[in-house]
Design goal:
The complex is a heterodimer of chains A (304) and B (263). Chain A is an alpha/beta fold and 304 residues long. Chain A folds into two domains: 218 residues, Rossmann fold; 66 residues, 2-Layer Sandwich (Alpha-Beta Plaits). Chain A has eleven helices and 14 strands. In chain A, strands 6-7-8-3-9-10 form a six-stranded mixed beta sheet, with helices on both faces. Chain A has a four-stranded antiparallel beta sheet with strand order 2-1-4-5, with helices on one face. Chain A starts with a strand and ends with a helix. By secondary structure, chain B is an all-alpha fold. Helices cover 79% and strands 0% of the residues of chain B. Chain B is built from eleven helices and no strands. The radius of gyration of chain B is 21 Å and the shape is elongated. Classes of the chains: A alpha/beta (304), B mainly alpha (263). At the A-B interface, helix 2 and helix 3 of A face helix 1, helix 5 and helix 11 of B.
């Protein structure tokens, strides 16, 4: 649905995006992560047909984006820009009405009414957008982005500056769009949001450093340590752990034992059994998985 | 369809920001006051008729001899004809602010990027911007024109209003003025899409008006007179230039530069 192949964009001597390739399938949300200046917005703009890549190809919904196809392809894209970009002197309804006209919507008034309802904007429909709060302006911008029922959504920081309630509503809405078959690319700084929302996460820093499911990305940094949380002082059970798994590294990590096993698959049951036999009240046994933030920092700081 | 949508948006925006039209209204009012001051008020105050000045009568002959007009009437006809052109062109200088702000304003308000992400083409966007600035300007000009002719009817010498109703006047109102307006506003919009400051665009746009104003001033010397036929050619030439400038505007509109380099 969204396919970027070898996308490169240079501004003079500076390379903003370098040989980036990825795909977003129908009914999938991919979160684009990266530090400031990593090329996220440039990538989004190339995908939206606003700027041309220096090299590489963008294909959206099966159509290659070119100067000739630009207008037609853009009618199938919903692009939420970093700033809401509303006409301040126009009302909420008027702002949406202009875009309904630009997209040539047949039943514009009904579509606008529905969008206002979905975003709970009906009571503010007659208000000039200059009078709205930041969160409400963002909701209007989102309503505008979804107005023409696009099959491809490109969202630059969709929940930036929104309160938790609105953020949750936006996530719910994106879930619905995904279920409806949209291909959705979300640029965000919010790792928690990326993890909650996205099927896959792409980490960009000029180049595409990684793209995978959040769990798979975390797996890359897996330490192999087993965390065994016990009731009481965990240091009392260090010897039992060492007896059960000779050669293992055992340490106390807060209220838990952290055990690095040579072969966790085979050794874990025996370890747990030994701890229980030693009288340890075991509350939880899990493999230590790093947070997505750790993976992100690892990837972006590793890259020169 | 998309042009109509964008023009409607321009009108809505302007309706909520009427102060933006103030320069056009002020220039129109000033342009109304000036000819009547010279052709009617000054002679009445000094007690010396326009026809008493032999040189003026001689110069005004370039506007044509009308058997039913007095010397005063002939000079008034000459002046009202001359000021008609000025009257039709000067409101454009006021409208220049609207046109100059067209693209820069959208960029500064951060409304341009979502707009460019829609299927709207460059041609549609620029045409809508020109119409958005032109239509209110012409409306104000036409309203002023009605007052101008009413003033000539009320305060002009007998027969002047009838002599004003000529092919020359028709060509000036319905061809030269709109063509000059289109050309200069298009120029302002072209510049507006190339610079990141509305003032620069405005100054460049006004440059288009200057040659026309120079022709007008030269006519006051009586050395030459633009006939209806010459004015028709001038109007058609201006329209041709406008078409070329429109094509140039579309070709020079760089979405990328506007989005990535302007701050």
């Amino acid at each position: 649905m969204i396919r970027a192949t070898g996308l490169t964009r240079r501004f003079g001597t500076r390379t903003a995006v370098n040989d980036v390739s990825f795909e977003v399938a129908r009914g999938e949300i991919v979160a684009l992560l990266g530090p400031n200046g990593a090329g996220k917005t440039t990538t989004m703009r190339m995908l939206a047909g606003l700027i041309a890549p220096t090299s590489g190809v963008v294909t959206l919904d099966g159509v290659q984006l070119t100067r000739a196809t630009g207008s037609a392809v853009r009618s199938r894209i919903g692009f939420l820009t970093e700033s809401p970009g509303l006409w301040d002197r126009l009302t909420v309804r008027e702002n949406l009405s202009v875009y309904a006209g630009l997209y040539g919507l047949a039943d514009a008034e009904r579509t606008i009414d529905r969008a206002l309802e979905i975003f709970e904007l009906t009571p503010r429909a007659g208000a000039r957008t200059a009078e709205l709060s930041k969160g409400t302006r963002q909701k209007v911008a989102l309503a505008r982005t979804l107005l023409h029922d696009p099959v491809v959504l490109l969202l630059d920081e969709p929940t930036s500056g929104l309160d938790p309630e609105v953020t949750r509503a936006v996530r719910r809405l994106l879930d619905e769009r995904r279920a409806a078959g949209c291909a959705i690319l979300v640029s965000t700084h919010n790792l928690d949001e990326a993890e909650r929302l996205a099927d896959r996460v792409a980490v960009l820093q000029e180049r595409l450093l990684a793209i995978d499911r959040p769990a798979a990305l975390r797996q890359r940094l897996t330490t192999g340590r087993l965390i065994v949380r016990v009731s009481g002082d965990p240091s009392r059970y260090v010897e039992a752990a060492l007896r059960s798994a000779p050669g293992a590294e055992v340490s106390v990590d807060g209220v838990a034992l952290a055990v690095r096993l040579a072969n966790p698959e085979q050794q874990t049951p025996a370890l747990v059994a030994a701890l229980v036999a030693a009288g340890a009240p075991v509350l939880e046994v899990r493999v230590e998985i790093p947070a997505l933030e750790d993976v992100y920092l690892h990837l972006t700081q590793q890259d020169p | 369809m998309r042009i109509r949508t964008l023009v409607t948006k321009e009108f809505l925006d302007l309706a909520r920001n009427r102060a933006a039209l103030l320069p056009v209204v002020l220039v129109t009012v000033l342009s109304l006051v000036l000819p009547f001051g010279i052709a009617v008020v000054v002679p009445a105050m000094t007690g010396r008729g326009l026809g008493d000045d032999a040189d003026l009568v001689k110069v005004s002959a370039v506007a044509g001899i009308h058997g039913d007009l007095s010397d005063d009437g002939h000079v008034q006809l000459f002046l009202f004809q001359q000021f008609l052109m000025l009257f039709l062109l000067t409101p454009i200088t006021g409208a220049m602010a609207l046109a100059a702000h067209a693209i820069v304003g959208e960029k500064q308000a951060r409304t341009l990027e979502p707009l460019l992400a829609t299927p709207v083409t460059t041609y549609e966007l620029l045409t809508a911007k020109v119409i958005g600035a032109l239509a209110p300007t012409l409306a104000i000009s036409l309203a002023g024109l009605a007052i101008y002719f009413a003033g000539i009817l009320l305060f002009g010498a007998p027969g002047v209003i009838g002599a004003m109703a000529s092919a020359r006047t028709f060509v000036l109102i319905f061809l030269v003025a709109p063509a000059a307006a289109l050309l200069s506003l298009q120029a302002a919009i072209l510049i507006s899409s190339r610079v990141n400051d509305a003032r620069t665009a405005q100054q460049f746009g006004v440059l288009i008006i200057l040659p026309l104003t120079a022709i007008l001033v030269a006519q006051f010397t009586g050395t030459f007179w633009l006939s209806a036929w010459t004015l028709t050619l001038l109007g058609l030439g201006l329209l041709g230039l406008w078409v070329l400038l429109t094509l140039l505007s579309v070709a020079l509109f760089e979405r990328e530069s506007i989005l990535t380099r302007w701050k």
